[in-house]
Amino acid sequence: MYLAELKIGNFRALGGAEDFTLAFQPGVTALVGENDAGKTAIIDAIRYVLLSRDVDFVRVQEEDFHVNGDNVAAREITIRAKLVDLSPSDQGAFVEHLTIEDGVVALYVHWRARKLGGDPGSRRWVDVAVHSGKDGGGPLLESATRALLATAYLKPLRDAEREMSPGRGSRLSQILGRLPDITRGKEFDAQAIAADPSKVNELGLVGLSDFMRARIEKHSAVEQAESDITHRHLEALSLRGDGLRGRIQFTDEATVDVRLRRLLERLDLGLCGQDGHARGTYGLGSNNILFMACELLLLGREEEGLALLLIEEPEAHLHPQRQLRLMQFLAREASTKTGQHRPVQVILTTHSPNLASKIPVDSLVILKNGKAYPLTPDRTLLDTSDYQFLERFLDVTKANLFFARGLLIVEGDAEAILLPTIARLVGRDLTERGISIVNVGGTGLRRFARIFQRKEEGHSGMGIRVACLGDMDVMPDCAPEVLDLDPAKKGRRWKRESDFGEKPEVRKAALQARREKLSEGDGQGVQTFVSDHWTLEYDLALAGLGSEVFSAAMLAENEDPLNEGRKKPTQVMAEAQTAFAQFPKDDPVRHAVHVYEPLRSKRASKAITAQHLAALLDETYSDPEKQPELLRKLPPYLKKALEYVSGEPFDAAPQPDPATRAC
What is the pTM of this model? Predict the structure, then answer.
């Protein structure tokens, strides 16, 4: 049995004008997204409708009722859970509550909370009712029946050490008390043990406890004290014929269940090394792992009920390597079925890109503005090869896309390094706006974008602006001459403008078709911005930042001499400016090609050039008064991308066309 669907109406930020519905699958489901997106509300909704095994009392609060845009609070909350794949024993336990749809047996749990009263001066309270049936018209679910559906819940920032400590009602005693083997074994029989001492090994926990108590009562020191009390004191204080005797014994005459519970409440769960000895105090992370292992032990070993574990922020207190091991462990527990272990469904929330990168993409649900977007194949535009690609290449640095308010997907290190600096200098700070950059390294630009596109016809997307930046990769006709390239070489991979047609109108149409081809698949918040001419660095040079780009390239080309102290930055900058002054000034295109030559010939690393260029731009344009000047020197496609992803246009002042061709 597992939770297959959750439907919510008017619960906090979820289910306002229309009900919120989220489907789950067996195994691990991870809810990801920024803060206040609705992840905790989903976990709490599951706890409300199914209950949880922790000792915290769940009470409906005023804040649980949804407040609409007119600041009017709802008067009713509805939460409906659908559970499927019930075993024969599950069906027997819930026989009067089952629903059969198209031959499939399902259990619906319909939870409703209503505000009562509310008139001025009257008392207000909330009435909660839990019924079965798809529409809540089935029989009332009694508390004993609902207990079979109670989930295991691990709260965020949990104190695992305290949870595992002994004491009345301790979590460890609750877990151990529910294990099937805990009550097995014989009761203590003094005569049987006296006749055959080996029968001690057949005793259950309560039997062992009774055996220990009997041995304590028969201990020589205890018997001597008992004798002294009787013969040395009571006989001297009693009247003839009273016959008073002292007796020392345990006073616990409670039932077997109570005695077992009290015994378990004395147990403590701790950590030790491989030799069995404790190594000082273990940290929060190790105790957190221990706590989760204990909960999964119970869920996996129970013979009946719902095996569902809810975890908020499992990464709490865990370093990255342990986070990865944790996900491997949870995936195994969710899929393993043996004679003594059943699979456990796990629903978790996380803010960790590290965890998100190791969870299968189709097991992720993105939460955004109170809406859920499962990444299952039936809901996204991702195809089978996309999922396989993302399983290989979605690493921790790229997984931050699941938590972003906006996204820039770029094809190289240069863009990833430069764009945050450029955006900040022109008043569009990416970090401030929650915009992430994902560098796909020249492959998979469109695959990552399709994560945010939905399969439903007419869907408007997730409300996340995704800007894909790509290079046109078409050099001007004068570039081969400047770069000493042979246009007649067979099998060449580079393209020049004349390769798209000799006539201007034919060439223009072909280049536009190439641009449109690179933008195929746009929509639902995804938009592609292709460089105006060739590459980012070339377009920056052509637009007006040639001096800065060339100086940065020269610094990158001299990286080793600079690091070794054989040259100084001022010397390299002076040499760069001298060489830059020799470039043709009457031909902006040929001039930009000369600037780009160290990068095209790979004499200078693009990534290192981007680092130096970011520093030069920061030094030159950090004064807010110079922001308009920098804006004028940015390629149009770059400005449009920043406008789009930030949702904030620049002032629409007329710009000179830097691409006037003289080459």
Answer: 0.80
